[in-house]
Design goal:
mainly alpha; Serine Threonine Protein Phosphatase 5, Tetratricopeptide repeat
């Protein structure tokens, strides 16, 4: 089979959520890439994202680094930039923001493609929001939306709405967050992206909890948890279980809350999600007082 046919087959399986089949085709394309640096970088980066979704950080980072090297050696600016974003995304998941920022900032020196630079800005916005810099995050998210819309990248629009909503949520603006996150769910459905639908659904659950709609929030959180559990995304499963614990505690179900948090903590420790470990330990300590 032609390596590009293998790439096309892998993308189809990935969109259908058939991750093992997708990885098999990506590896086949990799083995046949030869001197085709574009193809090699493309299939390595795509594999990196699939392993990232399974919280297999070291494997994901190694593949992204190889994709970066292949693209940089061949002076493929767009591919180099995208590979840097894949590397940065592993650092973000681990909470290593200082390692992610330089890689994301370098993207603008490699390409002017609005989809790619929008992705870098979107990730920088997510980091700024996590660090508590709301104004910086808002500016970067808004600019990323502008670039995604210019590029006709519906999934990017959904990503930006999700993370802008997440930032509003973290700053206690639950009404704004609920509106943005509903837009994120709608955009993710237009993009036919099950992973992003589940992520926006999880964040919507937290926003609804903030507005007082606890029953709907719990239903949405469980819906998202079912997806992340089915696809083996440990990082997002931890976030869902943490949220379900928070919702249980708000409803005076302390034993249920501890059960959710304890389960999430074990997974977070196993996958090396240090920010989540810290959050969960603090909850369990506070509950024990």
């Amino acid at each position: 089979m032609d390596p590009y046919d293998e790439l096309d087959a892998a993308v189809i399986h990935e969109r259908q959520g058939e991750i093992d089949d997708a990885l098999a085709h990506y590896r086949a394309a990799e083995s046949m890439a030869g001197a085709d640096a574009w193809l090699l970088s493309e299939v390595l980066r795509r594999q990196a994202y699939l392993h990232h979704a399974r919280s297999e950080w070291e494997t994901s980072l190694g593949l992204a680094q190889r994709a970066t090297t292949a693209a940089e050696t061949a002076k493929l600016g767009d591919q180099h930039a995208e590979a840097l974003i894949a590397m940065a995304w592993v650092h973000v998941a681990r909470g290593s923001f200082d390692a992610a920022v330089p890689e994301l900032e370098k993207v603008a020196t490699l390409t002017e493609d609005h989809r790619i630079t929008g992705l870098a800005l979107h990730n920088l916005g997510a980091i700024a929001a996590e660090r508590g810099d709301w104004e910086l995050a808002r500016g970067q998210f808004m600019e990323s939306v502008r670039r995604f819309q210019s590029a006709g990248y519906e999934r990017g629009v959904a990503l930006a709405h999700n993370n802008f909503g997440r930032a509003a949520l973290d700053h206690g603006n639950f009404v704004l967050a609920a509106d943005l996150l509903q837009q994120a769910v709608s955009s993710a459905k237009k993009a036919a992206d099950p992973e992003l639908i589940a992520l926006a659904t999880m964040n919507s659950a937290e926003a609804l909890a903030g507005t007082g709609d606890g029953a709907r929030a719990e239903a949405l959180a469980n819906e998202a948890l079912a997806h992340f559990t089915a696809v083996g995304n440990g990082w997002r499963r931890v976030e869902c279980e943490r949220l379900l614990g928070d919702l249980a505690m708000q409803n005076d179900r302390a034993d249920t809350a501890r059960s959710w948090w304890s389960s999430a903590l074990v997974t977070a420790q196993n996958i090396g999600a240090q920010l989540e470990v810290a959050k969960l330990r603090e909850r369990l300590r506070s509950d024990a007082r």
